[in-house]
Design a protein that fits this description.
2 copies of one chain form a homodimer.
Chain A (H helix, E strand, L loop, with lengths): L1 H24 L4 H17 L1 H17 L4 H7 L3 H16 L7 E6 L5 E8 L2 E6 L5 H11 L3 E5 L5 H17 L7 E3 L6 H7 L7 E5 L2 H10 L12 E5 L5 H13 L8 E7 H7 L2 H8 L3 E4 L10 E2 L13 E7 L1 H12 L4 E5 L3 H10 L4 E6 L6 H4 L7 E2 L7 E2 L6 E12 L3
Helix pairs in contact in A: 1-8, 2-5, 2-7, 3-7, 5-6, 6-7, 10-12
């Protein structure tokens, strides 16, 4: 209880400072925000020795805690990764500023002119795990969109994230922006996470960056709205009217390009007509590429596959494993995806326009694709610049969440002494 | 506990039926939705005797409960009001269908074509008080935007709302749409409201329609997102550079056109320069119109005013009462509104473009106006057609909430066997 009270006070004080900073940020000129981001990039390069020393401390601590090699890799910084962080900051600096953009405008018969104009949301909370670069990425996108941000990194990355955060603050200082625009929760105490999740009125939205465990915890506990996806159970459906060469190319890419990202395909649905026409070539391609294929029904007769269990469908492997199943046409695929999907990204392979239109209309995932790899589910690939994550909720933000989706809007109405009848 | 368990089961069963209906509705043709709304309008007129008989039952019950005259008036239906309900249904039928609209689209260097397309949100819960017409208004807007809706009317209007609901269901049946598209909670039990507020996964958003008591309860208890405004504490600021004739016209209209709506002005801020130039004319206009002016500082010297207490600022009177205060220019007005406003609607009266721009930039109310009456804060006046209410939150919906803001979106991505490098 003492912990919770202390954490509550801490988040209250960070939240109030953020709220005050947000008022200033909402009116900050684009040039000042870009200057802050470029100056932060300079600072990351200038202070790389400090950052790497901080990172070494974190790595020691993580090894003592017995973290896995994969976790240690996510935590590790080096010269290349720091260059990448600096480059990312400069790219966000160069993106267009969404704040103040006129989304739409129109005139009314009363003589009123109405504009709908982008504004920042206010205060964003970001809760992440061991990747220290999220400190810079999330801080940059929040600043670009005129929001104050409270960052709560994983306990393993406390020193590394702190050193990067110091660079962000140096950037803010250089540009004359309030330092409370980008704050870090300065404690390993888990109670601070709970306090953030309940900080209604101080934090407007929470964005969790990390695995299913973290996202699930945030989604179930939060009283503050959350932008997130719990899982990316992406499906590829090879329709009977698919072009074989395109289908082979896309299926392999969707599964194997990178297996650990949320846009990686986890389930291949094959139309019985496709099988009749082309045989088991898609399964064999995957097996040859070293993918473990967990096959259902007669597909399990293909040599080299393993037999799927019911749990393999609707499962996010994030590995060189894919579930595979025969379905009866696009309706079979739609029914399967509705039952087992996570509303993230699904792709149909077909040359038939009506079939593609049916797939697009009947499903309601954040992203639906035709003849394209699910690995394109990414803000950069969408042309949005950097993204803070991919959301599968239906309110406010959906799909890749970039600077624009971190904004709200207000109406500006101009009359000439206009009164309502 | 028994009540809560029963209410939970009830909402669970309504929610599941709504969820199933929502899948069908999301793909329903515009013509079917319009047909359902026009048929419902026909039914309201054809069954007006039944509806008025049901309303008479509710009025008897309400009188026994000792409801105020104002409450009885809100509850009362007559021929005119039923015609108004039918007309409203036909107007929504004629509005453009937001579902399937391409919000924006673009091409990527990879060859991908990306469309952002409007989709329904899913299931909407509407919790309202004694006005039985909300049954038709909310049902119509939800249907137009392809959402299923669960309506929970006030216990006083149970029979009237039920009779109108029967007309909506008849419309759905005529159009071959699922009857569960528009459901009513068939009980006076308050536990049903709590169950709706906690129905995450079944209800996507809750919209409360009613007074501050209802909205406050919903906002504090809900685990489901809420579109609402708690109060409309609208300010009018008369700047030193205001045009006198426009200012007099707008101030009177903003306060007195209708005092009971959320867009009615509750506080008049007068620039000291305006007072020096034009005297106390705005105050005298209000007094002459029969408004009680609760004046602060030297404004209280104007004969006929009463002296304001601190509680009069930031107060929603919804009556022929206004608080009035002198401020030092636009910065004084901004500071006052930031402290006392409810982020609903504020209007500046000025001929100076820079001053107006400052007011527009520094405040973040859902609606900011220049030289126009705050009474224009209304979906119809904005040209959005019918509205389900006005929201002051910053996520998803803001300002007047019409059919368009009851939608979400998805991305449709088309390639040609396109894979990610």
């Amino acid at each position: 209880m003492k912990d919770m009270a202390e954490a509550g006070q801490l988040i209250d004080s960070l939240g109030k400072a953020a709220r005050a900073a947000a008022v200033e940020l909402a009116q900050a000129p684009s040039a000042a925000k870009s200057l802050a981001l470029n100056a932060a990039a300079d600072a990351v390069l200038a202070r790389s020795d400090d950052i790497l020393a901080a990172n070494a401390k974190d790595l020691d601590f993580a090894r003592q805690k017995g973290l896995s090699d994969a976790m240690l890799d996510r935590l590790r910084l080096d010269g290349d990764r720091l260059s990448g962080i600096a480059k990312g900051l400069r790219e966000v600096a160069d993106q267009p500023d969404p704040v103040g953009q006129v989304i739409t405008e129109w005139d009314r018969p009363t003589g009123l002119h109405i504009q709908r104009v982008r504004t920042p949301i206010g205060v964003i909370g970001v809760i992440y795990e061991s990747r220290p670069n999220v400190t810079a990425d999330a801080g940059a996108l929040a600043l670009k969109s005129g929001n104050a941000v409270i960052l709560r990194g994983g306990s393993e990355s406390l020193h590394s994230a702190g050193a990067i955060h110091a660079c962000m603050v140096e950037g803010l200082r250089t540009a004359g922006l309030p330092e409370a625009a980008i704050q870090m929760v300065p404690t390993r105490d888990r109670a601070a996470v709970s306090a953030m999740l309940g900080a209604q009125g101080l934090i407007d939205v929470i964005i969790p960056r990390g695995g299913k465990g973290l996202v699930g915890l945030v989604q179930s506990e939060a009283r503050v709205p959350v932008f997130a996806h719990l899982e990316g159970i992406c499906h590829v459906y090879a329709d009977g009217a698919a072009d074989l060469a395109k289908a082979r190319r896309v299926v392999l890419n969707a599964k194997t390009r990178r297996t650990g990202i949320c846009g990686a395909a986890e389930c291949l649905l094959i139309d019985r007509e496709f099988l009749a026409r082309h045989g088991d070539v898609l399964i064999r391609d995957l097996l040859e590429a070293g993918v473990e294929v967990r096959a259902d029904g007669e597909l399990a007769n293909v040599s080299g596959t393993t037999r799927a269990t019911p749990e393999d469908f609707g499962h996010e492997f994030l590995d060189m494993i894919i579930a595979a199943k025969l379905v009866d046409g696009v309706e079979g695929a739609i029914a399967h995806i509705r039952t087992h999907g996570s509303q993230h990204t699904e792709s149909i392979l077909t040359e038939d326009d009506a079939t593609a239109a049916r797939f697009f209309a009947a499903l309601d995932s954040a992203i639906l694709m035709r003849n394209a790899s699910t690995q394109f589910a990414d803000g950069g690939e969408f042309g949005m610049g950097a993204e803070i994550g991919i959301a599968t909720g239906k309110l406010h933000a959906r799909g890749p969440v970039g600077a624009e989706q971190l904004t709200s809007f207000k109406y500006l109405v101009t009359g000439d002494g206009t009164i309502r009848a």
